[in-house]
Amino acid sequence: MRRWLTRRGEPAPTLHRVHGHAHGVGQGRMPGMLSDEQLRRLEGARGAAFDRLFLRDMIQHHQGALAMVQQLYGANGGLESEADAFARSVDADQNIEIARMRSMLDARAR
What we know:
4 helices, 0% strand
């Protein structure tokens, strides 16, 4: 995505030095980003409670990526083949990860 933006003369976000990807670019937070309160709860959780909370939070995070894909197509974006391929890849990958995490969460509920 950074390469795509750079080729078009658009500013590319600075990558987070720990996570290796951009967070909270532009105005406000991106969809799916955890609130400070959610991060504090996660930081204080331990054991099985941490596992469940982490999975719920990560599902929310991945759903945010799906919301951005919907926003792109809803605004008639993704018409360029590279952008469309990227958005489709994000959609497929995030749905797979959400299904995997829901399965893991269900297993921890038993």
